[in-house]
């Protein structure tokens, strides 16, 4: 156990590609935390998808032992957090677990939206923030301009920002010294009852559920009996340790320390991020503030492209759910798609991550149906039902009215882009609640329907503001609106996986956009294909996909047989990624791409 | 019982990998080299013929084809030795066909007589265009005048002769192609190969196209119009479309290429040459080393083959379908069944017939004139449904 004055806990705030992971790698390397031979790029990002997308979904942590220039021994704990609005709550908990942040900004690029969203989380958590200007080895580096921008846009002092090249190692020592001298030590009382914050948890095939904790007060020891304050469940702690970044067992964790515990917990579902862990006996009765249960807000169907893979899909979903409490699922059947699952997610990124993991880790090709929110259907008979799936929409004549969830969205944006943001919000049926300025930045608050946001709002926002907007939202409640179910017919056959709930006034526009999109997404066939959007029996939009007219190899002689055959085999494999609807083959990615709106 | 290949016959392909210059549209296995040891190459070809003679004795050989590269750059004496050895190894059919590919440049035309005396009885000339600017753009070393002279001399020299043209060239209009094609049909001696320009990956043209520097290629409408016009004009001249890009008067089709499309057996000799040879009832796919020197070394070590793969019944049947549907005469469904042990999907045939793209009857299946521009899509959907 380390004395509080010699502990520093921090996170790194950065935009994708600004060098967060490389900087973390260098800190780990310079302090000899990992033997040189075990070092690999981006130590902290364990999963492939994260590595490829450059995002970190689960909180990762590493404990670094550092001998300062003055000869003192310090323990540094780095928590690396996800950086997306879907995981805003998880980020807020990680931020509460540390006292300071390094704000890493690419000195060739400057501040970007994701940086803003997370740096405000850090400011909210009362962090001390040390700006780090990275990539000073590149010719395009412009530290003075970027430092000025940090002061203007974020409003923190950047005069003593550290200039670093995580790639070459320049400035790493200075960064370590700044962590010690500029970030505060944690506080806590080792004699008080145990108060540990559950920062994150995940499933490990050998250890069961691993719980990442930050000790606020008291001391956690192996063999302790602890209680999760949210559900009151009691567990026997069979192992505690720290990450270096490999799991390393220790005897105890004291105030200010970050580490893990295992307690033969079977399901991640039993561990809630933000919960307070205390001792069964002589425990605290005051949980840490800020706990929120995680509730799925976006629903969609996941179906195997190949029906025969349904059982494999069930297996994959069950395994993933063990490790992700915020992901819900139940079986679903569709006339066109067969057996699958209706799944609930925190947001669209969460959806994409789960879908990609199923495809990659379990090698199952999936069709993802139109994402939906939960609607409240008020029947004429007075009964209220929850609608998770437009395909289940009852006969409109039996419906009295429909309510949809609304959110309060807060958007921070440089005023240059304000017009575009206002237009986007109006286009998505938003009602402006507030508009204020802070320097050259505007803060806009909108009341928006959740179904207009869940799909591609965040992508659109990033795109219209060149990445300079930050976005956060909270649920406001349910409100009645004129909502209808829009069906899509391909070659005169309804494709229920493409059914969506839309506002009546927007239906024509959405229908047209979808038909146009599908026209581009469905490959041409040897016959022409009508693509229609309809409400009830009424067609509101129509496109025609022209027939394929030419597809022939000019030269094919004896020497070309093998090559040509290989091409055919590739096409055959490509067809496996398509789903047959009547006579038409629709590629799996069409189901989600068709719903993205470009304007 | 006869083996499947006997429905089509047995052929030998000889690949000569060298050219004077590399054309920007060509993705064939060709190399430009200053010094070629003709006698070493001759020994290698003869050694491969001997090996194949031992492995496949007693078959009646229908055709030989010298391709490349530019085989008209071969020493006519080498061609003579090769043909002599072939005749000594296998019995040959009554109408034995020996084709050689040539360019219209004067140096090559000068060898025509010697090549005929060596045993070549059919010449295939790579004319490509009857338009000087286009010939330059295609990277050809000859002009129209040389091409016309070469056509005339080849027709005087060889019993049978054909030439190639490429259409769908940069900036080529439908009317320009019509008159160029009419001019070609006037000169044709019963056979033409008319190819739509294809931008093959890895070629100079592909690089230029990727860089946005290959302008004026036809759009889909023009490409269809060019193809249809080609079919109409050739038919009127009595030179009928018998394969996607090949046109012939009655009895003038290239027998060698028909063996490929009818899925017979063929041995491929030379760098990168492919073969399909039936061994114990199974079709064997062979490939020789692609680069010239490794091929020579491999032959000198005993056998030119770099890769041998025995095809299963399904692969074999797919190849038969893919090749034979390129022909106007189409495929034999009984033959397919005998190879694959199953039938071509009846429902897929019916679907494509309904679209007017396919026609079946008398156990035959053929692509219609309407379906011809969709040959690959049709083949692909029949195979995927199988």
Automatic annotation (TrEMBL), chain A:
It comes from the Bacteria. It is a peripheral membrane protein. Its EC number is 3.6.5.n1. Residues 5-187 form the Tr-type G domain. One of its GO terms (biological process) is positive regulation of translation. It is found in: Cell membrane. InterPro entries: EF-4 (IPR006297), EFG_III/V (IPR035647), EFG_V-like (IPR000640), EFTu-like_2 (IPR004161), G_TR_CS (IPR031157), LepA_C_sf (IPR038363), LepA_CTD (IPR013842), LepA_IV (IPR035654). Keywords: Cell membrane, GTP-binding, Hydrolase, Membrane, Nucleotide-binding, Protein biosynthesis. Signal peptide: none annotated. One of its GO terms (molecular function) is GTPase activity. CDD domains: EF4_II (cd03699), EF4_III (cd16260), LepA (cd01890), lepA_C (cd03709). The keyword Membrane applies. It catalyses: GTP + H2O = GDP + phosphate + H(+). Required for accurate and efficient protein synthesis under certain stress conditions. May act as a fidelity factor of the translation reaction, by catalyzing a one-codon backward translocation of tRNAs on improperly translocated ribosomes. Back-translocation proceeds from a post-translocation (POST) complex to a pre-translocation (PRE) complex, thus giving elongation factor G a second chance to translocate the tRNAs correctly. Binds to ribosomes in a GTP-dependent manner. This is Elongation factor 4.
UniProtKB/TrEMBL annotation, chain B:
Its cofactor is [4Fe-4S] cluster. InterPro entries: Aldolase_TIM (IPR013785), Coproporphyrinogen-III_oxidase (IPR034505), Elp3/MiaA/NifB-like_rSAM (IPR006638), HemN_C (IPR010723), HemW-like (IPR004559), rSAM (IPR007197), rSAM_sf (IPR058240). Keywords: 4Fe-4S, Chaperone, Cytoplasm, Heme, Iron, Iron-sulfur, Metal-binding, S-adenosyl-L-methionine. It comes from the Bacteria. It is found in: Cytoplasm. One of its GO terms (biological process) is porphyrin-containing compound biosynthetic process. Its main location: cytoplasm. The keyword Iron applies. One of its GO terms (cellular component) is cytoplasm. Residues 4-240 form the Radical SAM core domain. SMART domains: Elp3. GO terms for molecular function: 4 iron, 4 sulfur cluster binding; coproporphyrinogen oxidase activity; metal ion binding. The keyword 4Fe-4S applies. Probably acts as a heme chaperone, transferring heme to an unknown acceptor. Binds one molecule of heme per monomer, possibly covalently. Binds 1 [4Fe-4S] cluster. The cluster is coordinated with 3 cysteines and an exchangeable S-adenosyl-L-methionine. PANTHER family: COPROPORPHYRINIGEN III OXIDASE, RADICAL S-ADENOSYL METHIONINE DOMAIN-CONTAINING PROTEIN 1, MITOCHONDRIAL. Belongs to the anaerobic coproporphyrinogen-III oxidase family. HemW subfamily. This is Heme chaperone HemW. It comes from Poseidonocella pacifica.
